[in-house]
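Its record is set out here:
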Amino acid sequence: MRFNLISFILGQLGEKRNKIISSIVFAGLANGMVMLVINDAAKDFNEINFRNLCLFALCISGFIYARRFSEYNTQACIQSAIAQRHLQIIDKLRKSSLSHYEKIGKMSVITNLLENSQIIYESTRILIHIATASVMLVFCFFYIAWMSTIAFWICAVILAVGIFTYKTAQKQVVALYHQFQAKDAEFFNALNHFLDGFKELKISREKSDDIYLNEFSQNLHQSVRLKLLSEQKVVANTTFIQSLFYVLMACIVFLLPQLDDAEPSVLMSITAVVLFMSGAIGLLVEAMPLIMKADIALANLDKMEQKIDQALECKQHNRPGHFNLFSSLSLRGLTYDYLDESRQRMFSIGPVELNFARGEIIFLVGGNGSGKTTLLKNLCGLYTPSAGAVLVDQYVIKAEDYDDYRNLFSMVLTDFHLFEKLYGLHNYSDERVNALLKRMQIESKTRFEHGRFTNLDLSTGQRKRIALIVALLEDKPIMVFDEVAADQDPEFREEYYRVILPELKRQNKTIILVSHDDRYFDVADTLIKLEYGKVATVQRQEHL
């Protein structure tokens, strides 16, 4: 076991580390001194020994104060560290590429940030108890050594055997823990598909039965089997240590008097000390599985953060509005490859050669799977081309330019997400947003009050209208709409194509949209048709 948790905690205590460590040592010594005072007081019960009574009260008071100080300050440091770790990971995520984020997956991020962080936090409190108990045990061993060298060696040998055996057996528990974690990951992956595809499963009993029996049921049963097996080994380890303690007691009571000619009072004191140690040893044994889980949780967090580090984009220039005065965009030999985990190509687009002029309305058309959305993601800078280049007024966009380049776009893709607040926007009023809601004919469904939408539980078409409102408020030079007109009633579809798009064009916006509404193709200045990831035709319309 690597004890990543100890290294993590020591690394987060900062300037308080020495004080906290000192308080833990003091608490352990004070706890041990309680046992020493009791042993001394037990020699004579005929009268009250006020010196021992005062020492007892002093030790208990010191123990309580030191324990509270060390536990509270450690928890405060670790809570702050975990919060900072969350912020660090989220900050890295927002600076990572979309393609890599899609491979990491939403469920992986949520599980690591919530479940693993909670395990780490809970384990920290236990670790403080263990540290205090460990100091007390060391004190007790020195006290035993002072009373009887033979008793000390008996305790040391039995303890060494116990540690070696426990550590060896614990390796099997760790291996089993990794196995059932993998099964749990498969279960949550299936659960994610189940929730996202609820409609598809509801309409097909065969699909529903298949995922239930071969994903949920199978994974859960295998996970339970592995958990029970690991629990069996944990119980066996715990029982072994407890049995070893009884062996220690037997050696002290039956064997020590035969090997050491110490006085009976000394032997009784040693027996009392060993009994006093039993609680601390039991705490250590019971806490080790949780500490093991915390170590694995930290390793999982580190592993996920390493994946995010590999996905980080290079340092960006951070020049908002730098390209806003552009005249044209161009794609030169742009290709993009979807690769599987073995780096095998699954789907490609390109090479693509296209030009987009400022103030144009461009329609992208083509069948499903023709590459329209992938082309849009490359055009908007969400994906980095596998080959070729994106140009703004003949300037080739480099890796460090992408943040500035993406600032050109407002977009509504098919898998868009609605935020309840207008993040990043400042120059707006509730009245203006509500006026747009009225124009989009959804003022009866939701309102914008106190800086947020009152209701986002709407139909797909209504949610798209709100996404369109957000894009209009962002007021970017280029607007990208992927099937926004789909799921709309004929009246709003007419408004969208015949009024809203021409209005944006008059504002010198470049509008790039995916559409299957051939009755409105006349609105476009340029009609681009894609087939199998390649540009089939580019049709310029001069009537506008």
User: Anything to note?
Assistant: The chain has a mean pLDDT of 84. Residues 364 and 372 are 7 Å apart (CA to CA).
